[in-house]
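Hi R.,

Here's the input for the adenosine-5'-diphosphate complex you asked about:
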Amino acid sequence: MTGAAPPIARLQGFGWRPLGRKQQVIADLDLTVAPGERVLLAGGSGAGKSTVLRAFAGALGTTVAGDLSGRVEVDGPAGLLLQNPADSLVAATIGREVAFGPENLSLPREQIWSRVHECLDAVGLRYPTARSTAALSGGELQRLALAGVLAVRPGLLLLDEPTSMLDDETATTVREAIVRAAESTGAAMLVVEHRIGPWLPHVDRVVVLERGAVIADTTSDAFVRTEHERMLRAGVWMPGAVAPAPLDVPAELVAADSPGADLDADSITVDLELRTLRGTVRTRALEHTSARLAAGAITALTGPSGAGKSTLLAALAGLQPLSAGTITGAQPPFSRRRSRQLAAASGWAPQNPEHGFLARTVRDEISLTAGKLGRRVDVDALLELIGLSDLGGANPYQLSGGEQRRVALVAALAHRPAAMFLDEPTVGQDRQTWAAVAGWCAAAAAAGATVAVATHDTDLIALADTEIAVARRQAAA
Ligand SMILES: Nc1ncnc2c1ncn2[C@@H]1O[C@H](COP(=O)(O)OP(=O)(O)O)[C@@H](O)[C@H]1O
Ligand SMILES: [Mg+2]
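And here is the predicted structure with adenosine-5'-diphosphate in place:
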């Protein structure tokens, strides 16, 4: 957009070198957002999308260490919404959660609470303000986080893959809430997402980054009409394009010494203990759920946010105690093994990999488990496979979200376990990195492994041999 109105946000000659990196990850970038403009920011995993959002949110050089060059200008407060709904929670009740931002602005009490009600309304959360945040589903949590962002009246909404952790239906409610909020407040919006299709009707403009540089910047109509082929080559999930073929991963990188076992969960019930500010709450995550994972196949565990996919995956992996039911197949059962014996046979990649890294470098993280088990790993080949050849020396905590997920995946699988339990393994991936992750799953299954993925990704589900839909229990609480 051009015209006389001064921009609400502008990067001029912007560069960023994170602490610990030799080179800038973004150099000399110019980007302008007009008031009220809605921009979709796309691009490969690690291209710099989140960095741009953090720049506008004022986080670079303050909460995130590194060298900033050039200029970052934002007119008024910006509000940042992250990918994972649970990450942004600060309070025990939904009212206090939304009040948090306005309280930090030191607004008068009545004004704070009128904003709380207004913003909860704007995102369609019609619960009493005293409702516990622990009693919300993933989609509700994401809308709550959005209400919290809106409550500071930002002129610029920054949204970092806000629907990537959600099932389609929940994603739609969150997306609609975001679009409605942008419309009613007149805020400009900069939204990052890999699956761009559903956003295109709601944005004015599409900007695509590759290695920190803009490779496309055009209206959403022109983008789809003129850029299709070029963007597919750049790894962008263009709407309507079929998924890429899974990468042909060499069997010697993934094949276990011995074949996997069929695993049978028979009518299992799982109760989780959630720690909240007000003490421990027990919730029933699964009740009389059955599932069978066949060796030599990929099984996709699907279902809405909050249905219990991750819990089922963890239970099958022997990491989650059961209140009732049995899991049979592995001998001895995974749940009775000591950690070393379990690790030898099984690979586990959790939903939030960024919380679990143990080593100082990507290279060490990837060879850690294999090293303890005395198995040899070709780290260079693995890094290349997942597109991280340049980042072997980087700190795993200092990577983009999609990069971290790939590191966690390879760290869990490098020792070639015969059973794999992967929670949302394709979140944050562009087409190329998706093909590597999908190829790994396919090659391991072809080599006899028992592969289970909990996922919302319809392309990954299509690749699976079996889909097990986990149904949401009637909302407790
Ligand atoms: N906390 C961090 N510390 C150091 N480098 C980082 C950090 N977060 C991301 N990076 C690096 O900055 C580059 C851009 O990352 P990011 O903006 O997160 O990418 P995107 O959001 O497009 O996936 C990548 O090379 C990534 O490894
Ligand atoms: Mg990112």
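One thing worth noting: DSSP finds 15 helices and 17 strands in the chain.

Cheers,
M.
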